[in-house]
Amino acid sequence: MKNRKGKNQTDAPAAKPFSIEKYNSRTDRRTSQNGSLVFSAFVFVVALVLAIAAGYLIAGAFTVWVVLVGFALACLAEMSIHIAMQWERVVVLRFGKFSRSKGPGLYFTIPFIEQTALKADQRIMVTGFGAEETLTSDLVPINVDAVLFWMVWDAEKACLEVENYYNSVSLVAQTALRDAIGRASVSEVAIRRNQLDQELQEVIEERTSLWGITVLSVEIRDIVIPQELQEVMSTEAQAEREKNARMVLAEVEKDISAMLVDAAHVYEENEVALRLRTMHLLYESVKGSGGTVVIPSAYSEGFSDAALNNMTDSLKTPKG
Question: TM spans, by residue (predicted)?
Answer without folding.
Answer: 36-58, 64-85
